[in-house]
Amino acid sequence: MPLDASVESAIEEITNDLQQSPKVSKRLVSWLRDMSERDLSANENLEHLEALKQAIQLEPLDL
Amino acid sequence: MKIRLLGWESSGLRCPDARVNLAEGGICKVSLIQMPNGTGKTTTLSLLKVALTGRARDWEPDQVMQFARRRDAQPAGKFLVRLSVDDKPLTFELSFDFIEGGIRYRTTSPGAGGVSEGWKPPDDVRRFLTSRFVDLFVFDGELANKMLDPHQSRAEEAIDALCQLDLLDAVRREAELSWQRLTKDKGAKTETGLAMWKSKEKTLAERLNVLKINQKKAQDELTALIKNVSTIEKSIKGRIAEDKTLRDDLQRMELEETRLEGVKDQSAATAMRIIRQPQRLHDSLSRSLSLLKGHLDKAKLPDTTSRQFFVELADTELCVCDRPIGDAEREAILAKAGRYLGNDIAGVLNSLKQDISLLVDTEDPEQQTVSGALTALSKAENDFHKAQTERQGLFEKLVEQSDEEVHKLNEQLKQKEVRKHELEDVLSEMVRQPMDADNDDEKTVCIAAIVKQLDQARKKIADITGTVELKRRIDLIVELTNRAKELARDRIRAELVTQCNSQLSKILVADEVQIAAIQKSISLVGQREASVGQTLAVGYTFLTAVLEKGTHQFPLIVDSPAGPLDDQVRREVGKMIPSLCDQFVAFTISTERSHFLPAIEQYVQKNIRYLTLFRKVSGTKHLLDSLPSEGVNQSENAVLVEGRDYFVKFALAEESEE
User: Fold this and answer.
1) Interchain pair B174, A7: CB under 8 A
2) Which residues contact B136 (CB under 8 A, 6 or more apart)?
3) Quick one: closest CA in A to B481, which residue?
4) ipTM confidence
5) Which residue of A has its CA nearest to B167?
């Protein structure tokens, strides 16, 4: 089931603003779509969260 | 998700006993239930909300009693609501106990295992049956007021719920929860913590490097010094007094000193070996061990274990006291048998007894004790030191009798001996085992202690690096979801303002009102408050626009949809309602029909179900004589009539009180 177009476009814009790849927005939208269709189990939510975390790229820490 | 209201049934409650079927012959786009004032519109609407949300599960008795009849009180009541969720049936049944003040839910859903006690909707529909959602589609005039109330946030909540912005909150919550779970009971997690540990690691690594360099230098110096001392000693011995007797004495004393040093080391090893044997620590300990073995033998332990005794006892008909052992006694004996000696402990006791027999009872009384060994060690040390002192005295005497060159060599020897001891002390400190006091001491010279601290720092860094990275990812998800939600909501609000204003200009021609902004609530252009009609029109318009944006379909259930509206607005609202949703269910009174009904009928045409429900009371007695021949369902206290003709003709001069 599609999300509101405003939600998807906002996610894409903010993802870009945070200098993250489109993979991040795609994984977040995919999670939200799954959520909008049914109540996800704890494991399913965890799988989505892990996928989203893996897609995030971090700059090396400057300590 | 497509939810439809198929009907409801009530009995024994404040509202009349009735069975309302909205699905017979197919669900109509509009269902109008005409109920005179006092027939229980508000009660029915409340019951629908209570049944759908499951919110009565933790009700107090006085809340339950609000649904009991005031007159003709019944001990129990029942309310049942039937839904279709994506074309699958779902039923919630509430059983009221007006004696105890309790309430019980029962759910029937083929998708969730058939009939089950409690409020148990299937997982996929549960999140739409919260108060936040249900209050939006079971709509009353209060909701419209709340949407315009600047102290409330119902407009924002409606946007968040229907446009699914709250899913972004759910993602944020999942991320934050996972962070809390993963970092529970851990220490420093911040970048500052990581910087601190990295600095500590650097200091310790530098310290270890310095110590290793110093250790090598000291070791090299010591090796050279030992060689040097040996050379000087040889030179001195070669030049000291010519007296052969004295020189022979010195040689003999050196041999004796070496022998006595060996005796001292041997005595120390013997004392250490004896200390490790408890029966030889002291006579009283040896005697106590023999006594313990004697007591165990006397108690016949562990030949028959106590636990086994009780297990066997539980299997007999009579106890040792000759009283019968029944099922309850047997159960108690077996349950408590575990408290007593078992086979595992028996094994330990047998082993202990065997060792006592072997090591204590058969021990040679002449065998050395710890006390004897320590006395022997003390004597060996004294003998060694005495021989050492004598040898040194003779050596000094020989040096004194020698020439100036020997004196100088002897001075050099003494200085080098002092330095040698210093180096030996430092090296000994460097290679010793770490102690507790070294744990946080970055300046210790103990190399093993620094290595241990360095290992800990590196483990901590690895740990924190992982958590700091995780925290940065979680923070990014939180920021992404928060900012995306705000951005999406701002855009949706702007779209809704334009859309609603366009609609309002058509509806409220004579009494125009425009939306200035939608924040937490809806604010109007140039006015702080709106009339009842304006409020309802703005509420409907807003809800229509939000429902259009939403991707799920709900029935819209409304109490008195046109009650406070004037004729013109009623017409416009009547036109608008068919576009609100696929199923519109309205509770009306007869006076609402004018202008509202014709407008709805014009736009929906024949897809309307007309129902009229009234109580059997003295004020409606005359109606019972003129009921139509078809479409009538009567209960003990109410009449339900289906059909347009009866609906449009129905009127009561005086409506009874509920």
Assistant:
1) no
2) B143, B158, B161, B162, B543, B554
3) A11
4) 0.97
5) A32
